[in-house]
From TrEMBL:
Enzyme class, UniProt record, top EC level: transferase
Taxon lineage: Bacteria, Pseudomonadati, Acidobacteriota, Terriglobia, Terriglobales
Gene Ontology biological process terms, A to Z: lipid A biosynthetic process
Enzyme Commission no: 2.4.1.182
Function: Condensation of UDP-2,3-diacylglucosamine and 2,3-diacylglucosamine-1-phosphate to form lipid A disaccharide, a precursor of lipid A, a phosphorylated glycolipid that anchors the lipopolysaccharide to the outer membrane of the cell.
Name of protein: Lipid-A-disaccharide synthase
Molecular function as annotated in GO: lipid-A-disaccharide synthase activity; phospholipid binding
Length: 376
């Protein structure tokens, strides 16, 4: 998503620029020739990644060979630090200037790895307001350009039309379930979400946006297995939908896995409960390395708990239902959360100078990328 936005912004300034690299459907549609499909790199977790290393290393080598053949003028790496700092190192060795857009969250854990950006990155374009100072204090040339989701327009489709399109009951409240964008994440998060949906009862219908990295049949199979287990209780109606933003916009609330989806929910002003679970070994190895007091991105941005966080052992259906009941009904708890989400959106939209601007973050990023200070 971020790559496609950036390609569009760069092409508006220089129609002759061309792109190749790692990407998915959105980047292909924007005009990037994808040497590696992003979904082949969509693995999460410390232990989970081990079995995928040979494949990932092969894709990495393919990308570098293609870079050697094409000799790019500039490299732009987006997020995915375990993969991209190695790409940046190879580009540095070849004398190719490299920009990091959506910089790694080294402030959250592995802070010593900031040296990788100092050594291999010419410019870091960061999307959270607190990141600019964090990286600058550690010798990285970083600029806050705003969050790419902060300028998302609200969906224009009316609720009645949306209900008709997906055979939903418009008289009921809808709840969006967002279990993650990777298969392992979904396996860990979705079953408990479905248990929560069953316990919330028949007054609600549930929307599950299908991430581009996931297969619908995989989701249907997982839902079918869990619903069969829940046959003694209410079987929730789960509707798969293609896009997250309209689902969130028209939903009363959400149950959202930690990650970018929490920012999407905030931008749509949808109250939600943040949940997350990884394998026990990954949690055991990873938790001592975490250097921040909160998991949810919106809470980190707000510097306070705006949404409840149910992580690992706390992520149970009973806990989810209890928290959801607090925010589904009108009242002080829901109002406080909506006010907090509005503050998060305001912080993400702020310009680097603090004056605010209508310019999209991707346009600010493109302006910097094409400036003489970055261009080789």
């Amino acid at each position: 998503m971020y790559g496609a936005q950036l390609i569009g912004a760069l092409r508006r300034r220089d129609p002759l620029v061309s792109f190749f690299g790692v990407g998915g459907d959105r980047m292909r549609a924007a005009g990037c020739e994808t040497v590696v499909d992003a979904k082949d790199l969509a693995v999460v977790g410390i232990t989970e990644i081990l079995g995928h290393l040979p494949k990932i290393y092969g894709l990495y080598q393919r990308l570098i060979r293609e870079a050697d053949r094409r000799r790019p003028d500039l490299a732009i790496v987006i997020d995915s630090p375990a993969f991209n700092w190695r790409v940046a190192r190879q580009m540095k060795q070849r004398g190719v200037s490299t920009v990091y857009y959506v910089a790694p969250q080294f402030w959250a854990w592995r802070q010593k790895r900031v040296r990788l950006l100092r050594d291999y990155i010419d410019k870091a374009l960061v999307i959270f307001p607190f990141e600019e100072q964090f990286y600058r204090d550690r010798g990285v040339d970083a600029t806050f350009v705003g969050h790419p989701l902060a300028e998302l327009p609200h969906p224009t489709i009316e609720r009645a039309d949306y209900a008709a399109q997906f055979q939903l009951d418009s008289t009921k409240s809808w709840i969006t379930l967002m279990p993650g964008s990777r298969v392992k994440e979904v396996r860990m998060n979705l079953p408990t979400m479905l248990e929560s949906a069953a316990q919330l009862g028949p007054d609600y219908e549930f929307l599950l946006p299908v991430a581009p990295t996931l297969d619908r049949e995989f989701l249907r199979s997982l839902i079918g297995e869990k619903v069969a287990e829940l046959k003694k209780t209410h079987s929730p109606k789960i509707t798969l939908v293609p896009d997250a933003l309209p689902a969130l916009w028209h939903s009363r609330a959400g149950i959202v896995a930690s990650g970018t989806a929490t920012v999407e929910a905030a931008m749509m002003a949808t109250p939600f409960v943040m949940v997350y679970r990884v394998s026990p070994l990954t949690y055991l190895l990873g938790k001592p390395r975490v250097k921040v007091p909160r998991f949810a991105m919106v809470n980190l941005i707000a510097e306070e708990e705006v949404v409840p966080e149910l992580v690992q052992h706390d992520f149970t259906a009973a806990n989810v239902v209890a928290q959801m009941k607090e925010i589904l009904s009108d009242g002080p708890a829901r109002d406080r959360m909506l006010e907090g989400l509005a503050r998060v959106k305001a912080r993400l939209r702020a310009s680097p100078g603090g004056s605010g601007t209508a310019q999209h973050p991707a346009d600010r990023a493109a302006e910097i990328i094409l400036s003489p200070q970055v261009q080789p």
